[in-house]
Amino acid sequence: MPRDRPIFSTVLMIFMALYSVMGLVSGALVLADTSGASLGLPEDVVGSLPVDDLLLVGLWLFVVWGIVPAILCYGLLRRPMWKWTARLNGWTGMHWSWSGTAGLLVLLYVWLAVETYFIGFDAPIQYITLIIGLVMSFLCLSPGVRRYYSQGQGRFSSIK
Fold first, then answer.
1. At residue 132, does pLDDT exceed 60?
2. What are phi and psi of 150, to 5 degrees?
3. Quick one: which of 95, 96, 100 has its CA closest to 69?
4. DSSP state, residue 94
């Protein structure tokens, strides 16, 4: 670990890795049984969704909450500079992995709102997911982490 990496960045990566594992496992479980019965989802909950089965939900969980966080975690750890991410880096002034993490956290809150609308907000995993997301938002927006991933003119140009 580089000596100048803030501890909050390391904690952010750990939570991102946790999200990745949660997304891969939950996505695989939903894909294995798209009726939701093996997960203990009541038929009325699945029936209230705008889809016939949970295939799209399983794919969403696996890709968006499993694979994407794994890629972002790698980016947060190694900070690779890829040509295809240059436009995002220039637009935000931040490394693509930080921008992607911030964007994924916004998407998390939208996802939780949609989930709450369709199935309610009473499962323990929903509270755990929300709490981890709030902690990750704090970590992502902390000055040390923002400085570390800054891509402005100078390394510390956006945050003093």
1. yes
2. -65, 135
3. 100
4. B
127 CB-contact burial (10 Å; exposed 0-12 / middle 13-18 / buried 19+):
exposed
Q: How far is residue 128's CA from residue 13's CA, in Å, rounded to a whole number? A: 17
DSSP secondary structure letter of residue 156: T
pTM: 0.87
pLDDT grade for 159, boundaries at 50, 70 and 90: low
Q: Where are the beta strands (DSSP E) in the chain?
A: none
Q: Can you tell me which residue has the tokens 């997304």?
A: 23
Task: Assess contact for 132 and 139: CB atoms under 8 A.
Answer: no
Q: Cα–Cα distance between 47 and 29 in angstroms, integer?
A: 19
Taking CA atoms, 96 is separated from 20, 56, 58, 99, 159, in Å, by 18, 27, 26, 5, 17
pLDDT digits (tens, 9 = 90+) for 143-153: 999 999 998 75
Fill in the amino acid letter for 69: P
Mean pLDDT of 54-63: 94
Give phi and psi for 151, each to the nearest 5: -120, 20
Q: Which two tokens stand for residue 33?
A: 């049984």
- Return d(Cα 44, Cα 36) in angstroms, integer: 11
